Amino acid sequence: MEGAGGGGGEVRLCGAAMAVGVGSFHDPVEIQGLAHYLEHMLFMGSHRYPEENAYDAFLSQHGGYSNAMTECEYTVYHFEVPPASFTGALDIFAQFFIDPLMRPEASARELEAIESEFNLSRSSDSTRWTQLMCHTCHASHPYARFAWGNLASLRDAPQAAGLDINAEMRRFYGQHYRAPNMKLVLLGMEDLDTLENILVRTFAGVRGSSSLPPSLPPSPLQGLPPPMDESNALGWLFRIVPFRDLHELHLTWPLPSLLSQYRSKPWEYLGHLLGHEGPGSILAALKARGEATAIVAGVSHEGYDSSTGLALFTLTVTLTEAGVRAWEEIVGVVYAYLGAIRRAGWQRWVYEELAAIARMQYTYQEEVETGELVEHLAVGLLPMYGLERTEFLEALFLLRDWRPEWLEVILVALSDPTRCRVDVASSRFGRAGAWEAGPSAQVPEKAGDGETGVIEGISVETEPRFGVHFTRERLAPPTLQAWKDIFNRAATGDALPGNYPALFLPQPNPFIATDLTDHTFRTPRSCIYLKLATPHAYASARQEVMTELFVRLVKESLNEVTYLASVAELHYGLKATELGLELTFHGLSDKLLRLVELVLRRLLVREGGSEGGKEDPLFPSSCAGLSSSPQAVRFAAQKEALIRVYANGNMKPSRHARNLRLGVLKEKMWQCEELEREARSLTLEAVAAFAPRLLEALQVDGLYQGNCDRADARALQSLLLSLLQLAGTRPVSPAAYPSNRIAVLPPGHNLLLAAESVDAGERNSALEAYWQLGPDTIERRVVVQMLEKLMEEPLYDTLRTKEQLGYSVSCGLRMTNGILGLAVKIQSERYEPEHLHARLEVFLQSFHASMSTLPPSVYARQLVALAQNKLQRDASLNEEAGRYWAEIVDRRFQFDVGPWEARRLLSVSLAQVLALFEESVGVNAEKARHAAVYVTGRACRSRRGGRGGREKEGFARSGKATEGEGGKEAMEGTQTPTQAPAETPLSDGSVVKPEKKLGPLLLSAKVRSLARISERMGGPVAVDAPNGGGHGREGGTEPEFYPNLT
After folding, report:
1. How far is CA 375 from CA 79, 147, 186, 389, 394, in A?
2. How far, in Å, CA of 1035 to CA of 1010, rounded?
3. pLDDT above 80: residue 695
């Protein structure tokens, strides 16, 4: 085993990572998914630490985090923890690789976890496409292995082959988990000599550490022919039925392995040109024709794309519906651009520009998380990468050697259409859920025409693992020859057919920084945040959609320029919020204000103005009513893309549950179906008329932070004022300031929202249980945070690891527009939400009992760990600026909130946490303001007649999750329910299910606010208190809201 260490300086968190040179390519054919299964099992206890949750519990109690990942040719494990707990965590971690238990009873449960993880991934279109690619490779090649694993491959297949899965797992572990096959990285506060002594003492028991280590198996790709060739994939067309509403074109070319070319990275040059978004690029041409909205090209670092056996160069285009019909011509445009590259020859200035940017990114990179850093370094030490020890820290970042001969190797492969695999995934061919519900009603559409019908002579196939429906056929020789002819004509400068656009290489990038001085984070970067509050952004569902479309049109009109800025490490964001518009700018400070002015001018100044009488590039009057104008084409593409966003918005059950909860809580929250309807009816003229109104009155808040001084801030202020004056914008009056209130949930009642999954083939169900805890104060916040801290690990261990309720189990604090809450989320393939809710209630009862008897020393340890986390310094300028901006937006202005919270935490007693739980969260909490959301998968296993059981996810392996909710929302929480008896169907297809314990339930699946309840239920709704008393709410009355807090 080879180790590396670093320490002796200021370290926020210590950490370690172990990379093992074995992955899914090493799986036995009879037990596919074994490497992934073994990765799970190493977390389940060791002889020295036999408790299954020993590792997770230690990290949770001491403010740590861990993760693990199985790749194609390696598996990597890492953790991070405060310095005082480093050696304790390291000792538990080391036992993974010395003496793990791998108990049969634990392995049986973990098989269910693998099955649940597999079923969660079934809704990922990128995963489905990767698996289809594997399925269509040569069956004997490791690329064709099923890396995820499931019950069929890890239980049924071994049984059929007469194999003992537990014995085979131990054999696999013994064969590959040996010191010569491992690379370990430690990062600690200690000096290097001390770290080396810790390493030797802790890992001495790893097998194969003697002077004569056993030999290791050869690479599974050694000496093998490519997994795809002309007989199975190259020169073939695959049409794919996706899970979501999407349209994508994938072009894939196999190349020799490029791992040895880490110094030159020739794929970066060609990926940069093919994926460029500026004038003359493939994307610019396709956007002008309304056929595409995004492009990406290159060789990724993932195992299928970068292996010791080969590399896969992939170009992916996000298509419009028009692009689906024109896919064949779009491939021709790609070959025309490849011809333009050939004609231009190898431009060294392009490579040197990329090398300069890479050098800036590496030299001035901001600090990364400890876990991410040690994982990156451990993987970089693996022999498969062949990195020189003197440069392995920078080897994966920098471009050092100009090697045009390798550019030639790649271009020769890319320019041959017979060496290209073409995949077209489109919901025009159907949707996966509809196929599972009844495939006879869904048939692939013949690409190139707009009609739906059976493709003559082509049968629909089903990939056996993920159930991907697809067709395949050899591309016609005339089609392949036409693409080759286009390449040759472009390469020689001959005229292309009239329908082909002008394509040319980019010009030098004007945004590359030259002034790189800084004094704060040792990096010449700055961040700028701007909030433009307007009362019109989210005043109605229609205005929200018009605001979103306006934002998309602004970003699209700037894209050719802002893309260049992003390449040069200058980034911006523009998004609509319920308060108005929010802009963010960050990157190298030298030219940041230049980007700010460019974006603000396009956003704020409409026709004429400072443009010297030029027409508005977004809504020129000369193009009014012309559907063929560039603006109309651009609008149609962006409208179509936004409709797909809304159509896919509730596809994942967990996201669906969250949206339903927020629809009840937030005054301005419309469900995806409502927004989609509005989007379909909008016209360019309507958005053009709305834009001046959106920006007629604004209140601007801003933050400028980083490598800047007072003069820079004043320059930004002057720029803003001048542009606002040019735009004729006036201040927002206090009375007109946009509202973002949150509804007050009634105390003492369980409110239940129930709906079925959007997709008919969805196997997963979701529960989100939420407790509203009142307006945010620092005193209340730290008590809720401590409750989360105490709850998160036992919740995960009980419901995920032991009961296997669902693959995804988490709890978290919710901050919804200044209102505190606590939530538990469970997603399950095996159980419907009612059962998940009932088991959660049982857990809450046992958790209350255990918390009541918690030893003071254990409580103190967790309290101190949480306080220490809050005292950690910001890792980067972006982290610090983001924290400051949240304080400004939420109007708290506690810029040193971490130390404040840490001080308040130290005075929080266990009795206070218990009191909060018993009053507002526990099963018998009479004042609880509780809502639960059920989203039931229409194809979940219990509905399919499958047996009940357990499921699982990864608290310790997925760690500190956060998610946004209007302003922000952090993860942590839990609460209770019971089972639900009879159901009341509603006209919209959702159901109302009464809650057993606390009286009649109130809410249906598509209710946007409490005021609408009576409309859905046909009359006034009475809310009965648990003691038989109650208070009424008339059907049309306004619900009670908390006052605006942000």
Report:
1. 9, 21, 10, 16, 14
2. 9
3. yes
User: Do 260 and 190 reside in the same domain of the chain?
Assistant: no
For 115-126, give one letter per residue: b (16+ CB within 10 A) or e: bbbbbbbbbebe
Can you tell me the distance from the alpha carbon of 859 to that of 465, in angstroms, rounded to the nearest whole number? Answer: 46
The candidate with the shortest Cα–Cα distance to 114, out of 804, 825, 939, is 804
Among 736, 757, 787, residue at a domain's last position: 736
What are the DSSP calls for 829-873, one per residue? SSS-HHHHHHHHHHHHHHHHHHHHT--HHHHHHHHHHHHHHHHSP
Tell me if 717 is assigned to some domain. Answer: yes
Do 634 and 553 meet the contact criterion of CB atoms below 8 Å apart?
yes
* SS3 at position 11: coil
Does 99 fall in a domain?
A: yes
CA distance 492 to 502: 14
| Residue 687 structure tokens | 């958005």
Q: What is the model's pLDDT at position 971? A: 32
Instruction: Kindly give, in sequence order, each residue whose CB lies less than 8 Å from that of residue 457, ignoring residues fewer than 6 positions away.
Output: none
**pLDDT of amino acid 620:** 66
Q: Please tell me the distance from the alpha carbon of residue 359 to that of residue 398, in angstroms, as a whole number.
A: 6
Q: What is the pLDDT of residue 983?
A: 38
Distance CA 582, CA 602 (A): 15
**743-775 as b/e, with b when 16 or more CB fall inside 10 Å?**
bbbbbbbbbbbbbbbbbbbbbbbbbbbbbbbee
CA–CA separation, 528 and 755 (whole Å): 41
The CATH number of whichever domain residue 990 belongs to comes to 3.30.830.10
- pLDDT for 224 equals 87
Both tokens of 914, joined, read 């218990």
What is the per-residue DSSP string for 69-103? EE-SS-EEEEEEE-GGGHHHHHHHHHGGGT-B---
Tokens of 544: 């929200």
Residues 542 and 484 grouped into a single domain: no
| Separation of alpha carbons 619 and 626, rounded Å | 11
Number of structural domains found in the chain:
4
Element (H, E) at 768: strand 765-775
Closest to 859 in 3D by CA, of 902, 909, 921: 909
Q: What range does the domain containing 83 cover?
A: 2-203
Residue 574 has pLDDT above 90, yes or no: yes
Check whether residue 177 and residue 246 sit in a common domain: no
Neighbours of 138 (CB within 10 A): 17
Residues 605 and 546 in one domain: yes
Q: Which residues of 1000-1036 are buried (b: 16+ CB within 10 A; e: fewer)?
A: bbbbbbbbbbbbbbbebbeeebebeeeeeebeebeee
Whether 377 is covered by a domain: the verdict is no
Task: Give the closest residue to 272 by CA, choosing from 56, 633, 568, 499.
Answer: 568
Weakest mean pLDDT among 86-90, 589-593, 902-906, 993-997: 993-997
Question: For the segment 19-28, what is each residue's pLDDT rounded down to a tens digit?
Answer: 999 999 999 9
Q: Is residue 402 part of a domain?
A: no
Cα distance between residue 598 and residue 612, in whole Å: 16
Residue tagged 């003229």 (tokens) = 685
Verify that 182 and 260 share a domain, yes or no: no
Query: Cβ(671)–Cβ(1008) under 8 Å?
Result: yes
pLDDT of residue 222: 81
pLDDT band at 1038 (very low <50, low <70, confident <90, very high): low
| Residue keyed to tokens 């049968």 | 459
The pTM assigned to this predicted structure is: 0.84
Helix axes 897-905, 778-795, angle to 10 degrees: 70
Q: How far is CA 517 from CA 363, 521, 588, 707, 797, in A?
A: 12, 11, 10, 8, 49
Task: Please work out, in degrees rounded to the nearest 5, the angle formed at the alpha carbon of residue 792 by the alpha carbons of 976 and 971.
Answer: 85
Residues 775 and 726 in one domain: no
Could you tell me which residues are beta bridge partners of residue 771? 822, 930
